[in-house]
Write a structure and sequence with these properties.
about 300 residues, four-stranded antiparallel beta sheet, elongated, alpha/beta, Alpha-Beta Plaits, 12 strands
């Protein structure tokens, strides 16, 4: 197994703390040399191979490192560099929830975002919550969509580098969202994704009708997309990296070879293979064993 630790700190600091924590757990004398993966922006990472460990030891190590505000993954040594990236959009590749920002142009952001939050925590049925929120936007001028995109939507740090680096290594890159194609198409272009999927907002040519095109893309559709694009590329689930933050991302995160919860709801972080809570999307590359000098940056 390979243990990777990333933090908003210099590599030497991370390596020192990692060595001390593993030493406190009683294995310092048997540790091989820590490999420094480099630094991009504020984020640095290191990795170290570890012998198989029991679940209690593994849990203790991960908890201790998380307490140091490190993002940590413990992954098999083989098949680390994934050949399919499938990612959620809202609050993952971008820093916003598009529907919430659009609702602000209707004066309904507080009401809509409250429903969004509950749906992403898994407290509400996703499809029902989506249709309820869209119905609230009936009559909104179509110009508001572009205005919302231009004024409110931005890529999270590391998003474009993640996509472009994996593409440069031959990976297929897919953006899948319970949000809307108006936004997924634009975000996919901005970040460099090869393909995108989302739901469709229905309009009458001037305003939103308050309806969503059917069928709705939700949790199971995201999992189906993972399987479809894997099959298309001749890959297995083990060859994929899935990234997301909400309950509707959980099925694809659990199914992927490496499922990462990005600043996610607790229900998602608890079931993912790894989580990014403190750093940024560059860490998804470090978790795959990329060195910083291999990153494809703007």
């Amino acid at each position: 197994m390979i243990l990777i630790a990333a933090a908003n700190a210099p590599e030497d600091n991370i390596a020192s703390r990692l060595g001390m924590i593993l030493g406190d757990l009683g294995i310092a004398q048997t540790l091989p040399q820590i490999t420094r993966l480099g630094q991009v922006g504020d984020v640095s990472a290191v990795e170290i191979p570890l012998a198989p460990m029991d679940a209690d030891f593994q849990h203790a190590a991960l908890v201790a490192l998380e307490a140091e505000e490190m993002d940590v993954a413990l992954v098999p040594a083989g098949n680390r560099r994934k050949r399919l990236l499938i990612s959620d959009m809202d609050s993952t590749i971008i820093g916003q929830e598009c529907l919430d920002e659009l609702a602000d142009f209707a004066g309904l952001k507080a009401e809509v975002s409250a429903i969004t939050e509950r749906a992403m925590r898994g407290e509400l049925d996703f499809e029902g919550a989506l249709t309820t929120r869209v119905a609230m936007l009936k009559g909104l001028d179509l110009k508001a969509l572009q205005d919302a995109y231009d004024a409110r939507i931005s890529l999270n740090t590391g998003a474009k580098t993640l996509v472009e680096t994996m593409k440069a290594q031959g990976a297929m890159t897919v953006l899948v969202s319970g949000g809307f194609t108006f936004f997924t198409g634009r975000v996919a272009d901005d970040a460099g994704f090869a393909a995108h999927r989302g739901n469709t907002l229905i309009d009458d040519g001037a305003v939103l009708t308050g309806e969503v095109g059917m069928p709705i893309l939700g949790r199971e559709a995201k999992l189906s997309a993972l399987d479809e694009f894997s099959a298309e590329a001749g890959l297995s689930r083990a060859d994929s990296l899935a990234l997301g933050d909400g309950a509707n991302d959980l099925a694809m995160i659990q199914a992927a070879g490496l499922g990462i919860a990005y600043k996610a709801k607790l229900i998602v972080a608890a079931e993912a293979h790894a989580a990014i809570n403190h750093t940024d999307l560059h860490t998804a590359l470090f978790f795959q064993g990329y060195h910083a000098d291999e990153f494809v940056t703007e």
